[in-house]
């Protein structure tokens, strides 16, 4: 078993660590494929597995974003299963426009998580416990899943979960109303171009420049990963999902660990804190100096982050 402090790549060593350690290590213990529903997944096994962690990624992401995360968790003794949402990466597409992300019903994401759980996670885990991790949109999906399907997972980790959208220059009510109107007008699959624009490190969701540069270069080098704009349909469904997950927070009865980025520029922290107070077995961890993507933070922050996850799962 490895010590997390010995595993974390120091700032300035990340990209070299990914190339020399992470990629060879993960490829040697990887099984990948597609579910019957067309979802692309990758399973990485630990030599000393204590459980299996299912990773539900965020909006417009793919499994490339979690290479470092998976490396640490496998070294800490957990099998890791990650899949790409429909409309993302190599999974089945929803619309012909590959750069837009659309969904007609958020429940589709929940059905996908159920299928990946039943087809891959549970059969692979055997008698080992199965845990659930969700970031941002994936956090909303994971929380909703636990509210609707209790008893499948033993513990739940939410990292900057999307429990309420934070929009610049417009209220949530106005954005939801506009999206609902566009859907009623038959324009649900039309992209919301207000989210367009070239991302720079300074306005990104990261606080580690080296990690941001690496993730950006990987995304830009693969046309299947160049996803950016949500559709009006996705926005409408996302607001509905945030409402539902907050309304049923008290239904979650397993232990929950929630991370809050104090400089989050994508989701509303007040909703996260309210959710944590409603869920009876929830531990809230505030991460000073971090933005939305906590896993893309400097090494000092990551040491605290992964230590909290390791302690929680143990």
Helix/strand layout:
Layout: H1 4-7, H2 14-27, E1 30-34, E2 40-44, E3 51-56, H3 67-75, E4 78-83, E5 100-101, H4 107-125, E6 130-135, H5 137-148, E7 155-159, H6 172-184, H7 209-220, E8 229-230, H8 232-247, E9 256-261, H9 269-278, E10 282-287, H10 299-313
Parallel strand pairs: 3-4, 3-6, 5-8, 6-7, 7-9, 9-10
Antiparallel strand pairs: 1-2, 2-4
Helix pairs in contact: 2-3, 4-5, 5-8, 6-8
Order of helices and strands: HHEEEHEEHEHEHHEHEHEH
Fraction of residues in helix: 25-40%
Q: Please give the radius of gyration in angstroms.
A: 18 Å
Determine the number of helices (DSSP H or I, runs of at least 4 residues).
10
Description:
With 314 residues, the protein is α/β, with parallel strands linked by helices. The chain has helices spanning 4-7, 14-27, 67-75, 107-125, 137-148, 172-184, 209-220, 232-247, 269-278, 299-313; strands spanning 30-34, 40-44, 51-56, 78-83, 100-101, 130-135, 155-159, 229-230, 256-261, 282-287. An eight-stranded mixed sheet has the order 1-2-4-3-6-7-9-10, sandwiched between helices. It has a two-stranded parallel ribbon with strand order 5-8. It is globular. The model has no long low-confidence stretch (mean pLDDT 93).
């Amino acid at each position: 078993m490895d010590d997390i402090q010995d595993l974390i790549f120091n700032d300035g060593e990340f990209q070299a660590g990914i190339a020399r350690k992470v990629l060879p290590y993960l490829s040697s213990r990887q099984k990948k494929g597609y579910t019957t529903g067309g979802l692309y997944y990758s399973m990485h096994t630990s030599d000393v597995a204590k459980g299996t962690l299912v990773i539900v990624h965020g909006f417009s992401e793919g499994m490339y974003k979690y290479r470092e995360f998976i490396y640490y968790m496998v070294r800490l003794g957990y099998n890791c299963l990650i899949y790409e949402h429909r409309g993302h990466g190599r999974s089945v597409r929803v619309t012909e426009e590959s750069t837009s992300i659309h969904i007609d019903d958020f429940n589709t994401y929940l059905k996908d998580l159920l299928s990946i759980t039943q087809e891959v996670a549970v059969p692979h885990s055997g008698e080992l416990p199965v845990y659930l991790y969700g970031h941002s949109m994936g956090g909303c999906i994971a929380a909703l899943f636990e509210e609707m399907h209790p008893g499948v997972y033993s513990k739940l980790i939410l990292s900057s979960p999307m429990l309420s959208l934070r929009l610049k220059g417009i209220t949530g009510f106005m954005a939801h109303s506009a999206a609902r109107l566009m859907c009623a007008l038959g324009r649900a699959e039309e992209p919301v171009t207000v989210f367009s624009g070239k991302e720079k490190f300074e306005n990104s969701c990261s606080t580690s420049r080296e990690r941001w540069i690496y993730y950006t270069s990987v995304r830009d080098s693969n046309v299947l990963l160049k996803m950016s704009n949500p559709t009006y349909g996705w926005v409408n469904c996302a607001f509905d999902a945030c409402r539902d997950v907050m309304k049923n927070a008290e239904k979650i009865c397993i232990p929950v660990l929630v991370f809050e980025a104090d400089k989050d520029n994508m989701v509303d922290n007040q909703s996260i804190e309210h959710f944590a107070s409603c869920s009876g077995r929830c531990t809230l961890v505030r991460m000073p100096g971090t933005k939305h993507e906590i896993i893309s933070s400097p090494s000092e922050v990551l040491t605290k982050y992964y230590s909290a996850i390791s302690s929680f799962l143990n």
